[in-house]
Amino acid sequence: MANDPARPRDPAEVVTESNPKVTYSAVFADREYRALFLSTLINWIGDYLSRAAVTVLVYHQTQSALLSAASFAIGYVPWLFGPVLAAFAERHPYRRVMIVSDLSRMVLISLLLLPQLPVPAMLLILLVAGMFAPPTQAARSALLPTVVGRERLALALTISQTASQTAQVFGYLVGATVAVALTPRIALGVDVLTFALSAALIAFGVRHRPTTMSSAQRTHLLHETAEGFRLVFGHPVLRSIAVVVFTITVFAIVPEGLAAAWAADITTDPETRGLGQGLIMAAGPVGFIIGGTVFNRIVPAERRARLIPVLAVLPPLLLVPSLLAPAAPAAALMVLSGGLVQGALTPTLNAVFVLALPHGFRARAFGVMSSGIQISQLAAVLTTGSLAEHFRVPMVVGLWSAGGAVAMLFLAFFWPAPAAFARATADAAATMPDEEKPAAPPVRQPGPADADTGSGTVPTTSVTPERS
Q1: How far apart are CA 419 and CA 427, in angstroms?
Q2: 137 φ, ψ to 5°?
Q3: What is the CATH number of domain 219-429?
Q4: Based on C-alpha coordinates, what's the Rg of the chain?
Q5: pTM for this model (two decimals)
Q6: What average pLDDT does the chain have?
């Protein structure tokens, strides 16, 4: 496509230009990105290890399935305050926020290693430790575009989200196995070490940058939080992305949340129910990993943003055949297919969202989005779990997904035009700090050939030159 500076540029061109330089090796060549990526991956693995281990530890001490489930569900509670905590993170340098959060969680989780710790104290510690998750996640997300540059952002997001799904599968599997076979405190001890290692990686691998919000810009924390909400839901492009993301989440999380009941409903042999549950729970993350990797390698970059409204309809639509109550392997295949589409869709959605954010609002906007995702997941699981008490799980999943497909068709019909994304991206780019602005294109001096013709031409440059 010609590089016409007067033509409004499609968000896909701005996000991930078909540039041979934007490769996995190019992303990982950045020392800061390597430190940020490894820190995030280690953090995720530790979190999933501890979640699995704590549920086992609480169950061993109480023999209560309810308290064990509460120890897992308490991880959602801090996200009710996520936008406020993210607004707090916006006030401070992102690097400092991540280091302080990691060290604080390291100290808190280490308290769970104390023998005979009462369960109420465990739950309180988990709640307080969870309060550090929203600000550090918002800070990481806000820092990523600065570290990798706008031209590498979509691929960096793909890598991060694929790693997240891998860490989830690995962390849950290893954490539960170690907790049951040996002792939950081994997994918790590993989690403590991951926080220490994560903080060290950020401290020594990511350079200091000043806060994006000066003291003169500060008002009241709640007012700053409200500004994040107004930005996300008052901006037509950001609002459209947010609604699509939340809607996909509401329908995509259901197979994982109902996996145990679903396997029991469609499997008559008690000995194979565990396998069926495992297949259904693992299928989504595995599909996400494959879809995110393959789609972003083989689909031309300029098509990705244009495919968003089409892809968004598919995850719930692919689960509608659950109404036929297929066997566990077939159900897992449907969930896998939905995961493939999510892996293809989510990084592009995230990249377009990031590039439409004005500088100085990233952490708050990500706080709103992250909290919305977590709350959407919790609401969906609780609602469908209640329905499953009265109806067969395949019927619940199938009808719930059919409703999701209709909702996504409606949202796809009102999806903004490419020109709206182009304007939003251009407006946000105008607020960028210098280190995120693309380098000025080199100007060739007129040579002999130009002197002969009198043209004095300047060569056409890439739309997304290397980050300065």
Answers
A1: 12
A2: -70, -40
A3: 1.20.1250.20
A4: 23
A5: 0.69
A6: 78
